[in-house]
Amino acid sequence: MPRRTLLALGAAATVPVAGGLGAFPAEATAARPRRGRPLANLDHLDFLGDTVRPARQAGHDTYRLDEEPALGTLWTYADRQQDGSYRRIGGGTHDPETGYYEQGAFNADDVARAAVVYLRHWRGTGAATSRRSAYELLRGLCYLQTTDGPHAGNIVLWQQADGTLNRSAYPPETPDPSDSGPSYWLARLIWALGEGYAAFRRADPAFARFLRARTDLALNALERDVLARYGTWEVADGRRVPGWLITHGADSSSEAVLGLTAFVRAGGGGRARTAAAQLAEGIAALGAGSAGTWPYGAILPTATSVSQWHAWGAQMPTALAAAADVLGRPELLTGAVADTAGLTPELLTAGGCDNGWLPAPVDRTQIAYGVDARLSALLAVAETGGHPGLYPLAALTAAWYFGANAAGEAVYDPSTGITFDGVAPDGEINRNSGAESTIHGQLSMLALDSLTGRAAEATLLRLEGVEARDGLRVLEAEDGRLAGSAKVVRPDSAWTGESRYSGDAYVELRDGDGISWTLPRGDVPLLVSPVVNLVPERDAGTTVWHSAARTAGRVDHGAGGKQGISAAPGALLPRSLSRLMAPGAELRCRAEQVGSGPLRVDALLVRPAVARLVLKGPGGGLALLSNGDGRPRTVEVSPPGSGPVTVELYDDRARAQGRHTENGSRVQVTVPAYGFAVARRRQSEDQ
User: Fold this and answer.
1) Is 329 exposed, middle or buried (0-12, 13-18, 19+ CB in 10 A)?
2) With contact defined as beta carbons under 8 Å apart, do 264 and 220 qualify?
3) Predicted pLDDT at 2
4) Which end of the chain, N or C, is less packed with Cβ atoms under 10 Å?
5) 8 pLDDT exceeds 80?
């Protein structure tokens, strides 16, 4: 999961970074074709790097430790100072007497992912410095892997600055000790080992053989602790879910698949092929929803909840695209396409790659870890599956780095390689720049730098700010007009164990109680999905929804399923109403035939039938129009800039449905049913 910047002050290094992310030329602030200066810049990642000389200890060793005792590693966080410099720090409170952090100075998660950055940079540019950095980090990473005992193959997460391993950090990790079972860091170890083996197989055969042996060791742990359950299905709130994913997660498992497929592509053995296929099948099984229905085709990140999706770490479509290609399993691409083509327009028009839709978008903080996962998925699926509509969606996603975010400011600086640690919903920027943000910022830039041809033309646009946005919004139940004995409940914790109540509250309804809302005004009809708590009780009760004296839908609150491995009974889920609502209309619900316990209504998810996002930049403008309705809809749009507008139409799988060019400041666009359109106006070079 994403690591939070802890402002613990301890022994750390400080370097100046001139100007931070202040003003710099427009041509440096936005993605552009590869003929320009590369976007990737490893300077800040280099600054976070360090070496460590661990003492010899049983169960931990690495390549040429005696000959080369200094191992590559990476500081976890970088705290921005008042003068614009950065101070490297570890995780948790620092003890000045021992020099230790409660967690550690370095962690396997970030060391593994940083190794991937250097490997890709080396392979893409031929830079000898990146080859060396990748080599050193992989050696340091492999030292953290446990080589014997009952947990051999797993990996310790935290390491202190003197090389001491901290198996049980504070606050405790899961698992604890950190090398005692399957983990996110095991998945990222496999990711780095797979890409490392592929890169060094011919460049350094001896080191590659070592990496292959460590991959086999990690596979031992994966097979022993995870894939031994392959084919075992479990239940979460009535849904059949796979029981053989790492930490029950499609997100964690997807990062392992990235490494396994790289290993297989480079000639790795049959065990890796089998493991990649089994994990990919489990990931694909968590696809959910459909066009117009939450979560809009997304692959759920965890088997333990049917009520949450998060942008961070959502590498599931990327992994499925890789598995489909490497394993020759084209059916695995189906879920990846549904996720990227279905969910992405919803995300972008609603506000971007949020940290948590649980199921309402309640955690609207946005970080590079989430943006990079979405960008990587769009580019991977577009390339593997031939779905051209994903490239303009990638352009809109990448624009977050360059100012198309809640702050309206660039959060990546190509002149320093700094990626800020995130943007809050109110636009406040966390100007720290730790390892995770730096790593995923660079992975995004490397992906953009690698684009060529039509993919580059469609994706590398100079988009820097939001001109207009009208998408999904939330109306809280507690803000509605209550009728009867309906009451607002504010639980001690809004987190249920698997989801979260939007606004930290919900409304309880008994027989005859009701709520009413005035819907937002606008030019197009509205799609409405009440978020309610579904329980596995046949006679729980029903809410009946009305607008303008007509029934808009009925929701059976007893339609939940058996709890199973879910952390809490019941499931907080949106339920789409069958009828479109008029903008500005009153929507009412009334509870009927309520059983032994009250019904719970959390919120309304409301979005225009055609949602939109319009971005601007010195190169022109790009508008996204997303149709959540089951029939084509015609709307007007005016992309920023001057000159003709090129309109491209795509279906719900991002397949091209038509293209035309029009003149005029405003153009009419008929958006395909459940599909989307992009309208692009390019600024002339002489303007």
Assistant:
1) middle
2) no
3) 65
4) C
5) no
CB 78 within 8 A of CB 88: yes
* Residue 358: strand, helix, or coil: coil
Query: Other CB atoms closer than 10 Å to residue 468's CB: what's the count?
Result: 15
Find all residues with CB under 8 Å of 535, minimum gap 6, and list them.
557, 558, 560, 569, 570, 597
Rounded Cα distance between 368 and 5, Å, is 13
* AA identity, residue 660: H
Task: Mention every residue, 6+ apart, whose C-beta is less than 8 A from residue 126.
Answer: none
Integer angstrom CA distances of residue 366 from 2, 110, 370, 373, 422: 11, 19, 7, 12, 6
Residues 6+ apart with CB under 8 A from 335: 283, 284, 287, 297, 299, 316, 317, 320
The residues, ordered by sequence, that sit 6+ positions from 451 with a Cβ below 8 Å of its Cβ are: 34, 379, 459, 460
Q: What's the predicted TM-score (pTM) here? A: 0.94
| Strand partners for 668 | 636
Nearest to 534 by CA among 284, 238, 167: 238
Burial state string for 487-522 with b = 16 or more CB within 10 A and e = fewer than 16: eeeeeeebebebbbbbbebbbbbeeebbbebebbee
**Which ranges constitute the DSSP H helices of 231-287?**
250-265, 270-284
Helices (H), 450-583: 453-459
Q: What pLDDT, on the 0 to 100 scale, is given for residue 620? A: 87
Proportion of the chain above pLDDT 90, given as a percent: 89
Residue among 42, 108, 30, 20 nearest 446 (CA)? 42
pLDDT for the residue numbered 269: 83
Average pLDDT over residues 31-54: 84
pLDDT in tens, 187-232: 999 999 999 999 999 999 999 999 999 999 999 999 999 999 999 9
Hey, is 549 helix, strand or coil? Answer: coil
Burial of 243 (0-12, 13-18, 19+ CB in 10 A): middle
Helices (runs of H) and strands (runs of E) counted in the chain = 14, 35
Question: CB neighbours of 521 closer than 8 A, spacing ≥ 6?
Answer: 583, 584
Handedness of CA 48, 52, 57, 58 (dihedral sign): positive
Torsion sign (Cα): 200, 202, 204, 208: positive
Confidence class for position 1, pLDDT limits 50, 70, 90: low
What distance in Å separates the CA atoms of residue 297 and residue 343, rounded to the nearest whole number?
6
Span 241-259, mean pLDDT?
98
Residue type, 62: T
Q: Do 531 and 545 contact (CB within 8 A), yes or no? A: no
On the CB side of 685, CA atoms within 13 Å amount to: 0
Average pLDDT, the chain: 93
Q: Which amino acid is at 102?
A: E
Q: Is 221 exposed, middle or buried (0-12, 13-18, 19+ CB in 10 A)?
A: buried
Q: In terms of C-beta density within 10 A (0-12 exposed, 13-18 middle, 19 or more buried), how is residue 149 classed? A: exposed
The alpha carbon of residue 658 and the mean position of all alpha carbons in its chain are separated, in whole angstroms, by 30
Q: For residues 177 and 97, is the Cβ–Cβ distance under 8 A? A: no
Query: E strand or H helix at 514, and its extent?
Result: strand 514-518
The verdict on whether omega for the bond into residue 33 sits within 30 degrees of 0, i.e. cis, is no
In one-letter notation, the amino acid at residue 601 is: V
pLDDT for residue 32 is more than 90: no
